[in-house]
Design brief:
Elements (H helix, E strand, L loop, with lengths): L2 H7 L3 H18 L14 E7 L11 H15 L6 E7 L7 E7 L8 H16 L11 E2 L15 E5 L4 H4 L10 E7 L12 H16 L5 E6 L8 E7 L5 H16 L13 H12 L5 E7 L22 H8 L11 E4 L14 H17 L5 E4 L14 E2 L16 H8 L9
Parallel strand pairs: 1-2, 1-5, 3-4, 6-7, 6-9, 9-10, 10-11
Antiparallel strand pairs: 2-3, 7-8, 11-12
Helix pairs in contact: 1-4, 2-3, 2-4, 3-4, 6-7, 9-10, 9-11
């Protein structure tokens, strides 16, 4: 019996017959084709990425789907030397992913091409579908196969299995995307009523970032949590996408997404809302990034700073006053060319706050539209609620800014009283 026939038999007598039937179907498409017959004249690279199974140590996604993905790849790739099929398992963080299985088409099949391809297809399908952790010997087909020498820039098709998120599926469109740098400002103050910045909403923003260019090497995603002043803003999370092959990159992103899934959901009682200050910090660090940039603000936008003159829970600023104060305090961050998405505005009364009516809510929104215009924002989107990725989508309730000045529709100038308030108190401890 030839070595290749022994490889087929080693799959196991109970499954070998069924798998051999599948192998015949695959070989009918590709087994007798000479190298390059698929028309690609280059290796075909396919990666499957799954979440990990903590009990069995292998992938948690469907083995049947992995087997089907292997069959589809083999039908095209067996005649393309150097083609690879890999199964990556993502972990609970960005560093704990691992390569579960790798099949690589050899440079030559040697004598007995049909038998060699049949054995490769049958064994590869069985191992690609395995649920537990494979031994180092079985995890590579043929033994010793590796991804070394592969250029991360080479095209690799990626399929994510077992993740209940339509947004994650769009991560796999990795070609032609320039790196995107996104800064997310997180407001955990009690006035948000816990409806602005929690794990599901941060993950929704992460998914959109990854789909729009965050999966590209060099892309960054950072989270800043507002405090009581500019110097208490916390840089709470930072991810820079490494230059890896596409499949491994997606595994890193799934692990990073899992990290965000552990984000605390409770608000911070007594936490002031230094939103403008947090935006200033995020914008200053975002300015250091080269390439495409964006900002997401998960907040009710009710500015409250003990060291400043504002408490939007009590009263909203008049026309132009808040933007004037930001300029006077050096907080009008430079966001030219940076699209901004705000999510979390609401009309409810915060804890221990006075009545909050629709007029006050409208004035707060107007104040922030003017403020972002003063920062140079031309593309601003503001939402009242954050429900999954719908609250982050660019297509809803966009605010139209004047194309020439980058400002909202013209409004009356601020009154002398409002300008005096914007300049702040004359004496320490005095509130205007």
């Amino acid at each position: 019996m030839s070595r290749t026939r022994r490889n087929v038999a080693s799959v196991g007598s109970g499954s070998a017959i069924g798998l051999a039937i599948v192998a015949v179907a695959v070989l009918a498409q590709a087994a007798c084709s000479p190298a390059g017959a698929s028309g690609s004249d280059r290796p075909i690279r396919q990666a499957v990425v799954c979440l990990g199974d903590p009990d069995r140590g292998g992938p948690a996604c469907s083995g049947t789907e992995r087997a089907e993905a292997f069959d589809a790849w083999a039908g095209e790739a067996l005649s393309e030397p150097g083609s690879t099929f890999s199964v990556w398992v993502a972990g609970a963080d960005r560093r704990s992913h691992e390569l579960h299985f790798l099949a690589r088409v050899p440079e030559s099949w040697g004598p007995g091409v049909l038998d060699a391809k049949a054995a490769f297809t049958t064994v590869g399908r069985d191992r690609a579908a395995s649920s537990g952790r494979l031994s180092p010997r079985d995890a590579r087909l043929p033994i010793g196969a590796s991804l070394s020498g592969s250029d991360p820039a080479e095209t690799e098709t990626v399929r994510v299995l077992g993740v209940d998120s339509a947004s994650v599926a769009s991560w796999t469109a990795l070609t032609g995307r320039d790196p995107l740098h996104t800064a997310l400002v997180c407001d955990r103050s009690s006035s948000t009523l816990g409806a602005a910045c929690d794990a599901p909403r941060i993950m929704a923003a992460f998914d959109v970032w990854a789909a729009e260019g965050g999966a590209a090497p060099g892309a960054t995603f950072s989270v800043y949590v507002g405090g009581r002043s500019r110097d208490t803003v916390e840089s709470a999370y930072s991810l820079s996408v490494p230059a890896l092959r596409a499949g491994e990159r997606v595994a890193v992103l799934l692990g990073a997404r899992a990290e965000l899934g552990a984000w605390p959901s409770e608000t911070l009682p007594g936490q002031a809302s230094a939103i403008a200050e947090a935006i200033s910090v995020a914008a200053s660090e975002l300015a250091e990034r080269q390439g495409r940039r964006s900002m997401v603000v998960l907040s009710d936008m009710r500015e409250q700073t003990p060291r400043g003159p504002w408490n939007f829970e009590r009263s909203a600023p008049g026309v132009g006053a808040f933007a004037a104060w930001l300029r006077a305090e050096g907080l009008a961050a430079d966001l030219h060319g940076v699209p901004v998405r705000v999510c979390g505005l609401h009309h409810q009364r915060g804890p221990a706050a006075g009545p909050f009516d629709a007029r006050q809510a409208a004035r707060i929104k107007q104040a922030w539209q003017e403020a972002f215009a003063a920062m140079g924002v031309r593309e601003l989107t503001m939402h009242s609620t954050c429900e999954g990725s719908a609250g982050i989508e660019r297509s809803r309730t966009a605010v139209a800014l004047d194309a020439r000045a980058g400002a909202p529709n013209p409004s009356p100038p601020p009154s002398p009283l409002e300008l005096a308030r914007a300049r702040g108190p004359k004496h320490p401890g005095q509130r205007p």
